[in-house]
Amino acid sequence: MTVLIAGAGIGGLTAALSLHAAGVDATVVESAREIRPLGVGINLLPHAVRELTELGLGPALATTGVATTEIVYADHHGTVAFREPRGVARGYRWPQYSIHRGELQLLLLAAVRDRLGPHAVRTGTRLTGFTPAGDTVRVQLQDRATGTVTPTDATALIGADGIHSAVRARLHPDDGPLLWSGVRMWRGTTRAAPFLTGRSMAIVRDGTAELVAYPIGRDRINWVCQVRVADPGPVDGAAAWNRAGDLADVLPYYAHWSLDWLDVPTMLAGATEILEYPMVDRDPLPSWGEGRVTLLGDAAHPMYPVGANGGSQAIVDARVLAFELAAADDIPAGLARYEEARRAATADVVHANRTMQRSHGWGPRELARITDAYRSATGSDVERLNNRPSYTR
């Protein structure tokens, strides 16, 4: 069988590697003409690091990312309210890595081209439609350079094409708009000296604004500023997504902050590029796909980034997808089992992220309760992950 994956992001590339490892042919199509190391930082939680390690990428991750050892909650004066160990320091068998998203994508891309062949990822190719065709899916692919549309048959189609997924839009035309939390986010990276242990993630609040900061290697600090500017509601994601941010819009919320271990205003001002977008998600779907077509990653379950779990869940999706397809007697049955395994689990993460985003407790006991409840709700506690069977066949 040959599986066509729409989208060469973290989830799509991991799916290609996982399918190949399970003995299933895969091809990835990507709308962008060139895959470049764009974006900012991302956290890979231990359940995702486990999957990439089992794909043989552990050494590359260790070289590229920073193994996070703790998360620190503090106020805008730098007073620490709560510390919690992370990754191996917490007892997981696998680390937690903070890594540049674009560098992770290129790491995965290099592995796909090395293992599946140089033409396994077709860039500059846009999916414009698909229809069932007996034992295959007839997919319409457009060459962005020439505009030529070519029909291609695949035994399955996986929509891993992100939060504005074309595959999802065709499967669920009445899905509705993205749902905005009312929080505006600004993100950037700055070359700066490490803070605290040098492997610490910090979450800092002053009651109005919140900052998340962590190192991602090569003397870079990734930072995320979150400010509530409106009531929750629907948003036109195409108009408000991933646009260039302005320091003058975000700095006033943080200009008065004074941490003796991190100069926040200087860090924000030192970013070479600032991105601005709304914190959004969608309500979980009652089903992802049908027949030989399904969804993966943000296309299936866009979620708030407050749990540092979006990319990690896409990686687990990819591994379960390959695991179920390799064992299935037929493609639709394998995709149905994949969906059964992942749809409810990822819905739990969507709801857990919403709960965490709305939480206001800031005392040590409350923070400990919130983080423990999050791990329990998302199935990412130490004992369950360390003892779960592998998805490798």
Written description of the protein model:
Residues 1-21 form the signal peptide. Pfam families: FAD_binding_3. GO terms for molecular function: FAD binding; monooxygenase activity. The chain has helices at 10-21, 46-54, 58-64, 101-116, 166-171, 237-240, 247-250, 264-269, 310-327, 331-358, 364-378, 382-387, and strands at residues 2-6, 25-29, 41-44, 66-67, 70-75, 80-85, 97-100, 121-122, 125-133, 136-143, 149-154, 156-159, 178-191, 200-205, 209-215, 220-228, 233-235, 243-244, 274-281, 293-295. By secondary structure, it is an alpha+beta fold. The protein has one domain (3-176, 283-387): FAD/NAD(P)-binding domain. Strand 5 and strand 6 form a beta hairpin. Helix 1 (10-21) runs parallel beside helix 9 (310-327) and helix 2 (46-54) packs across helix 9. The longest helix is centred in the C-terminal third of the chain and has 28 residues, at 331-358. The protein is globular, with a radius of gyration of 21 Å. The two termini are 17 Å apart. The relative contact order is 0.17. The mean pLDDT is 95.
Structural class call reads alpha+beta
What CATH architecture would you give? 3-Layer(bba) Sandwich
The H-level CATH homologous superfamily, spelled out, is FAD/NAD(P)-binding domain
Total helical segments = 12
Helix content: 25-40%
Average pLDDT over all residues: 95
Low-confidence stretches: none
Q: What is the CATH C level class, in words? A: Alpha Beta
Q: How many strand elements?
A: 20
Largest sheet: 9 strands, mixed
**CA distance, first residue to last residue:** 17 Å
Principal-axes shape call: globular
Please state roughly what percent of the residues sit in beta strands, choosing from under 5%, 5-15%, 15-25%, 25-35%, 35-45% or over 45%: 25-35%
Cα-atom Rg, whole angstroms? Answer: 21 Å
Oligomer: single chain
CATH topology: FAD/NAD(P)-binding domain
Domain count: 1
